[in-house]
Design brief:
This protein is mainly α. It has a domain of 101 residues. It contains 1 helix and 3 strands. It has a 3-stranded antiparallel β-sheet. The protein is rod-shaped, with a radius of gyration of 26 Å.
Length: 149
């Protein structure tokens, strides 16, 4: 059976429409995946930085002898705190920054590390008010945690 030219042209036209519609749908799906991945990274940032902040606060509350640092000198001090003679674990593991995959930016003062932040210059989707980039989103320990007895 022989096909006419109009039938071949119609099939070709339908194939082109199918490819175009598939491309648009795949683009929309890829954008949704990107947004969801970004949202997940932000949730991960809030959780992990919050855990580090809590660990720094717990570290600062430990009563130590005069002259010992109140805040950790490095983040690894949160894994094994040996200032009192017995080992305390304020944090189980150190995570990299979930946004960059690199080490955290550190908020320091003369007493040690008081907090962390991401080094990324990207804009967060759901950051706190006034925060324009991830690097402005700070997770800092309370300024004066009371030492525990």
């Amino acid at each position: 059976m022989k096909r006419s030219r109009s039938q071949v042209g119609f099939t070709y036209l339908m194939l082109l429409w199918w490819v175009a519609i598939s491309g648009v749908l795949l683009t929309a799906l890829a954008q949704r995946w990107t947004v969801e991945a970004q949202r997940q990274k932000e949730m991960d940032l809030v959780f992990k930085a919050g855990q580090i902040k809590s660990a720094i606060e717990a570290y600062a509350k430990v009563p130590v002898h005069e002259g010992a640092g109140r805040y950790p000198g490095q983040l690894s001090d949160l894994l094994e705190d040996r200032r009192t003679g017995s080992v305390r674990h304020h944090l189980r593991r150190l995570w990299p920054d979930p946004i960059t995959g690199q080490p955290w930016g550190l908020i320091r003062d003369q007493e040690g590390i008081k907090g962390v932040f991401s080094l990324s210059r990207k804009k967060p989707m759901r950051g706190p008010d006034g925060v324009l980039t991830f690097s402005e989103w700070r997770f800092e320990a309370a300024s004066n945690p009371a030492p525990s007895p």
